[in-house]
Specification:
By secondary structure, this protein is an alpha/beta fold. The chain has helices at about 1-20, 25-30, 95-100, 120-135, 155-165, 200-210, 210-220, 225-230, 235-240, 260-275, 295-310; strands at about 45-55, 60-65, 75-80, 105-110, 150, 190-195, 250-255, 280-285.
Length: about 325
């Protein structure tokens, strides 16, 4: 009888720890290594669930790319681009499927668009989604312990803000539903394609090229206007703000006239000078959205992201 009581207490203690957002199996769980082979080719099941309803009344959805297998799988949150004003969870469908097929749970989310609400609404959505994934990833056999982020263009801008300011009270403003564990929005790593790492340089370039639509995208999102500087990743580093520095991968098109290579390189150098681990890769002959087209450079980008994920998980590719 004593043995049964002791076992029951141990079980209840474990469940209490889990409900509090702590590792349910203590030190043993911390030692568990996630198996990941970036060269794997697995079947992927796609489902959709509701994330949250935003202030404009639109239901933001999450698109779940779940690999076949027992798991647990590394978990990556995809933040779409669209100049803060457009696109949705479908924007990076080919990349998301490719990453998921290697054995990664990929979750692509909708985010609030600038006409619905300006900065920092979309970053709040991203912050919420990280915390939500730490709660929900096991539902789809995902590992919630090291959440990674893949961000494209303006989604890359949000990924950088999310990574550098995980505990910013403005970004943490949306609570999880009642009963959810108490978790923070820290992420383990960030991989990006054409991130807007210098918002001011991008705006000046849009004015220089007389791209009225791009200028309007900025003025719609950055309200009040000074937030274009307050939320500028490179300026955040130049101001020596206290930030969290996670490993980053930046993939940049050499022909990109949206987020120009010199500005992107400047961010990478500034991040490195601040003590951050960052890999900057230039893709020759590529424009801003080159991964939207099939080809060798797109294949290279997909492989690069997978290898980057493997390195963050301390997994060696089989020889």
């Amino acid at each position: 009888m004593k043995s049964n009581v002791s076992g029951r207490r141990e079980f209840l203690g474990m469940m209490t720890a889990f409900a509090a957002g702590l590792p349910a199996l203590g030190a043993a769980a911390a030692e568990t290594k996630i198996s990941y082979n970036p060269a794997a080719k697995l079947d992927v099941t796609v489902t959709e669930v509701e994330l949250r309803r935003n202030a404009a009344g639109r239901m933001l959805m999450a698109r779940i790319y779940q690999p076949a297998g027992a798991g647990p799988f590394p978990t990556v949150l995809d933040l779409h681009g669209g100049a803060w004003n457009a696109k949705d969870r479908f924007a990076e469908e080919p990349m998301d499927r490719s990453i998921a097929s290697s054995g990664v749970l990929v979750v692509a989310i909708d985010m609030t668009r600038a006409p619905e609400a300006p900065y920092p609404a979309s970053v709040q959505d991203a912050n919420y989604a990280v915390r939500w994934l730490k709660w929900k990833a096991p539902t789809w056999k995902g590992d919630p312990s090291k959440i990674g982020v893949y961000g494209s263009s303006s989604g890359g801008h949000m990924a950088e803000l999310l990574a550098m300011r995980p505990r910013d009270p403005r970004y943490n403003a949306i609570p999880l539903p009642q009963g959810a564990p108490k978790v923070d929005a820290t992420v383990a790593y960030v991989a990006m394609r054409s991130p807007i790492s210098d918002t001011w340089a991008r705006y000046e370039n849009a004015e220089h090229l007389k791209r009225a639509d791009m200028v309007k995208n900025n003025t719609t999102y950055f309200k009040p206007w000074d937030t274009i500087h307050e939320s500028n990743p490179v300026e955040i580093l130049q101001r020596h703000e206290q930030v969290t520095l996670v490993p980053m991968l930046v993939m940049q098109g050499a022909l990109d006239d949206n987020m120009i290579p010199p500005a992107q390189k400047k961010f990478a150098e500034t991040y490195k000078a601040a003590g951050g681990d960052i890999r900057y890769e230039l893709f020759e002959g590529c424009e801003h959205e080159w991964v939207a087209k099939e080809g060798p450079q797109t294949d290279r980008a997909r492989e690069m992201v997978k290898q980057f994920i493997a390195r963050q998980l301390n997994v060696r590719r089989p020889s």
